[in-house]
Specification:
By secondary structure, the protein is an alpha+beta fold. The protein has six helices and 18 strands. The strands form two sheets. A nine-stranded mixed beta sheet has the order 3-1-2-4-9-8-7-6-5, with helices on one face. A hairpin with a 4-residue loop joins strand 8 and strand 9. It is globular.
Length: about 300
């Protein structure tokens, strides 16, 4: 199976049709084959035996009933995903450029399907890093071919602000509500893309828009918009981006792309209440950013 996400191609070698198990992948599935001459950013080979290193994990992260262990070695990155309820562990291993990825997952139950979805997301995030692409924890909307991102930690009001835009500004559509991809194209233009991963919102659109503004969300009693410098933007983007600090190859690629975004896209700190006035404030800055970038 071939997926096209952010106009990048991934190959997944499962005998079973994965999209029948994971409906969020369907809008991104290539029905025939990828175009001639178009390379794949990674190839995922399934149901292969994987052994975890004997050393202590490089990183450990627990959330939503799962614990993820990571080992960064000279030639490989190895992940172990443990489900708390069952105690079962599933593994993924990739070379340091994320071209060749393998997993020991069989598709025999809901837990394994959930693990596969996580592994495909991880593989996309780190293989696409070498193609000027980053996944930023945000909610993104667009009007026509112009888009923006509302960025911040969970519960800060990103989805609420996207909903306000859709309610009050005609033609606004949701691109992604949790894990959109931002890619710098060969001409230097940044675009935001929908992905198969959108948190609790069922928004799986194979869609894109030019990225014209970034809004870093902060809850406040009074609505206020503050323009950020390139350095401030980079620092805030770094906190909102999925990355492996100890994996120098992918970290260098991701941080380089974030620096390009910070130096290209106007960014603002949006101190806001969850109301129409706050949406009007960000929308005005968005429109002004588009007009300034127009030739």
């Amino acid at each position: 199976m071939v997926l096209r996400i952010a106009d990048l191609y991934m190959e997944i070698a499962y005998e079973e049709p994965v999209t029948e198990k994971l409906a969020n992948l369907k809008p991104f599935a290539v029905t025939k084959t990828k175009p001639d001459g178009q390379e794949s950013i990674c190839h995922i080979c399934a149901e292969k035996p994987i052994s975890c290193p004997m050393s202590s994990p490089t990183q450990t992260h627990s959330a939503e009933g799962k614990t993820l262990h990571l080992w960064v070695e000279p030639d490989y990155c190895t992940f172990s995903l443990i489900f708390h309820d069952s105690g079962r562990a599933y593994r993924l291993q990739a070379d340091r450029r994320w071209k060749s990825v393998k997993t020991d997952l069989p598709l025999c139950g809901d837990e394994q399907i959930e693990a596969l979805n996580d592994f495909i997301m991880i593989a996309f995030i780190y293989s696409s890093a070498f193609y000027n692409t980053v996944a930023v924890h945000s909610s993104c909307v667009a009007t026509g071919m112009n888009g923006c991102a509302f960025i911040g930690p969970s519960g800060i009001g990103k989805s609420t602000h996207s909903n306000l835009w859709q309610r009050h500004f005609s033609g606004t559509r949701l691109i992604n509500d949790d894990q959109p991809a931002i890619r710098i194209l060969d001409n230097g233009m940044p675009y935001v893309y929908g992905t198969p991963w959108s948190g609790k919102t069922l928004c799986y659109r194979n869609d894109r828009a030019e990225l014209n503004a970034l809004f870093f969300m902060e809850q406040a009693h009074k609505n206020q918009l503050v323009r950020l410098s390139g350095i401030e933007t980079f620092q805030r983007l770094l906190k909102a981006t999925s990355l492996i600090g100890q994996d120098t190859a992918s970290f260098d690629a991701i941080s380089g792309t974030l620096a390009k975004i910070a130096g290209t896209v106007p960014a603002f700190l949006l101190k806001n209440r969850p109301d129409k006035e706050a949406a009007q404030l960000s929308h005005k800055a968005f429109v002004e950013s588009i007009n300034k970038q127009a030739p």
